[in-house]
Design a protein that fits this description.
The protein has 224 residues and is mostly helical. Helix content is 77%, strand content 0%. It is globular. The chain starts with 11 loop residues before the first helix and ends with a helix.
Amino acid sequence: MSQIGDPDPEPRFYSLTRRASPIIAHVVCVAFTVFIAVLSRPGTSWFSWHPLLMSLAFSLFMTEAVLLFSPRGSLFQWSTHKTKGRVHWLLQVICVSCAVLGLMAIYYNKHLIGKPHFTSGHGRLGLLTVLAVLVQSLAAMPLIYTSLAKGWSLARLKRYHAASGLVSYLLGCVSLLLGLCSAWFTASVSSFTWYLAALCPALCAVAIMSQVTRAYVAKKRLQS
């Protein structure tokens, strides 16, 4: 017998995957950050702070900032949207702070050893990512202090923020992946460990893309 009122039911496997992805993202972003922290041994050199701070910024804090709005995986599941928004912005401030400090650490380290700056794809993309996240966080101010959004539709600003935020997040994931291709990291781990580590930003990217795109596709369906 056909189900009336549900002509296109969601496949069970897809439904389970969608429910599990935010949980996996929580575990993976923490595990990856802890792994990088142990491997980099912060404090042993100026360089050692760079991978730690960048993994904190783009693997931990930025991922958790977006997962706050996950309908099934949020750590603030029962909080109001306003509370989630403020915690999201706070996590983004911490993310930007870590990213800027990480950029300063690698810049000063290269200055000490006399190496040129931003010559690799990882370095140039990393700089672009830090600038993008900084601008994106500042541009989100009207969403918190609505008096700043004069003449702008808040709904439209939210769409722009979500789209630019997704691009910034993906830039962060690609920067992390390029960092895993560095001589320091490849010399520190086995081939198997490298692939496991590379899987972490990729899994988080898929989970975040799925969350953001589903949220705005669902809103379009409701409005149509």
